[in-house]
Write a structure and sequence with these properties.
Its EC number is 4.2.1.59. This protein is α+β, with helices and mostly antiparallel strands. The chain contains 3 helices and 6 strands, in the order H-E-E-H-H-E-E-E-E. A hairpin with a 2-residue loop joins strand 4 and strand 5.
Length: about 140
C-alpha cells in the first residue's frame, strides 16, 4: 500500500544543509520511495561547486538517493524509530548534471532486504532524462532502548 503523507523530518535525522530530499511523492514501505529535491542557487554546495556554472554535486545526488531509500526502509513498522545508514555504492553512473532551477525526480526500489540490511537501485531524472543511477547498500540500526 502506497502512502504519500510522509513527514521526512519524523523519519530521517537529517536537517539542513544535509537533508537532501524535499518531498516524498510516494512510498511503499520496504519496497520503494519516490521523492523530489529542488536544486536552488541558495545552497552553498551549488554555489561552491563550480565558478563557471553552478551545479548540484554528483556525490550529493547519490546521497539524495540514499535518503530516499532510507525513507522506504524506515517506513516499515518494524524499523519505525530506527536509523538507516548508507553502507555503500556499486555501479554508479552519471549521465548529466543538475543546475539551479532543476527538480531531481528520485526513485529508489529496494531489491533485497534481509534482517537489518538491504540493497536498492536508485535513479534520478531531470525533465524525464536520467542523469544518475546507482545500486546502494543500507544498514538499519537496532532500536535504542
Amino acid at each position: 500500500m502506497a502512502d504519500a503523507a510522509v513527514d521526512i523530518l519524523k523519519i530521517l535525522p537529517h536537517r539542513y544543509p544535509m537533508l537532501l530530499i524535499d518531498k516524498v511523492i510516494d512510498v511503499v514501505p520496504g519496497q520503494q520511495c519516490h521523492a523530489l529535491k529542488n536544486v536552488t542557487n541558495n545552497e552553498a554546495v551549488v554555489q561552491d561547486y563550480s565558478d563557471q556554472k553552478p551545479r548540484y554535486p554528483q556525490t550529493l545526488m547519490v546521497e539524495s538517493m540514499a535518503q530516499a531509500g532510507a525513507v522506504a526502509l524506515l517506513t516499515l513498522p518494524e524499523f519505525a524509530g530506527h536509523l538507516a545508514f548508507f553502507g555503500g555504492i556499486d555501479q554508479a553512473t552519471f549521465n548529466g548534471w543538475a543546475y539551479p532551477g532543476d527538480i531531481l525526480d528520485i526513485q529508489v526500489e529496494i531489491t533485497k532486504l534481509r534482517q537489518n540490511a538491504g540493497v536498492g537501485v536508485g535513479h534520478i531524472f531531470v525533465a524525464d532524462q536520467e542523469i544518475c543511477q546507482a545500486t546502494l547498500t543500507f544498514l538499519v540500526s537496532p532500536k535504542e532502548a
